[in-house]
Design a protein that fits this description.
The chain has about 200 residues and is α/β, with parallel strands linked by helices. The protein has a domain of about 120 residues: Rossmann fold (3-Layer(aba) Sandwich). Helix content is about 40%, strand content about 20%. The chain is built from six helices and nine strands, in the order βαβββαβββαβααβα. A five-stranded parallel sheet has the order 2-7-1-8-9. A four-stranded mixed sheet has the order 4-3-6-5. It is globular. About 35% of the residues are buried. The N terminus is likely disordered. The structure holds guanosine-5'-monophosphate. Guanosine-5'-monophosphate (5GP) binds next to β5, β6 and α3.
């Protein structure tokens, strides 16, 4: 795992949870930060409209011009277009003493790796295409969209595997969360920042 050994006192570690839609990244990320107050979840921006029932703080929801103005001003660590919508990770600004958790797609993970070779890339995979499709339906994605994203998801997994430091299959939520938490702890033990 390529982790920078010269970590400074206020320099956070970066953990990237990436993988296809329906892998359960959002749920795993929320649970991880609930359990670990020193893990700070970066909130992405998107130009996608909020889905019905989706929490208002799932993203910073903005229109396209606002998104592009922020991108032009250098406000994003990385950003990408996905199925016609823009998504971006703002430059991370965690509280002192916290490490950063990014929940993004494979393109974003690739970009983060270019910018920070020391980031830990954790690929979260759904247990099967059927489970992946069902998770998308449950959160209200329309059927045509689901079929397309399941197909793309399989391709994303194949592209993601060579990038990933480690892969976690999200079959049982609590097991997956425990696995990711132990990966985080392992990296912290290897490269502790001064207390
Ligand atoms: P959704 O519209 O289903 O919330 O997200 C679509 C895809 O965009 C997901 O794979 C999600 O992980 C990805 N995504 C969310 N935030 C970001 C981000 O900040 N950067 C990038 N590159 N992808 C993101």
């Amino acid at each position: 795992m390529a982790v920078r050994p010269d970590r400074g006192p206020t320099e956070p570690l970066i953990f990237v949870l990436f993988g296809p839609g329906g892998a359960g990244k959002g749920t795993v990320a929320d649970r991880l930060v609930d359990l670990d107050p020193t893990l700070w979840l970066s909130r992405s921006w998107t130009s996608r409209p909020r889905r019905e029932g989706e929490p208002g703080d799932a993203y910073v929801f903005v229109d396209r011009p606002t998104f592009m103005a922020h991108a032009d001003a250098g406000g994003f660590f990385e950003w990408a277009e996905f199925l016609g919508n823009l998504y971006g990770t703002p430059i991370p600004d965690p509280p002192v003493g916290c490490d950063v958790l990014l929940e993004i797609d494979r393109q974003g993970a690739e970009r983060v790796q270019e910018l920070r070779a020391d980031a830990t890339l954790i690929l979260l995979a759904p247990p099967s295409p059927e489970v992946q499709a069902e998770r998308m339906r449950q959160r209200g994605d329309d059927e045509g969209h689901v079929a397309r994203r399941v197909e793309e998801g399989q391709a994303e997994l194949a592209l993601g595997r060579p990038l990933a430091s480690v892969e976690v299959v999200n079959d049982d939520l609590e097991v997956a969360v425990a696995e990711v938490a132990s990966i985080v702890e392992g990296v912290r033990r290897r490269y502790p920042g001064p207390a």
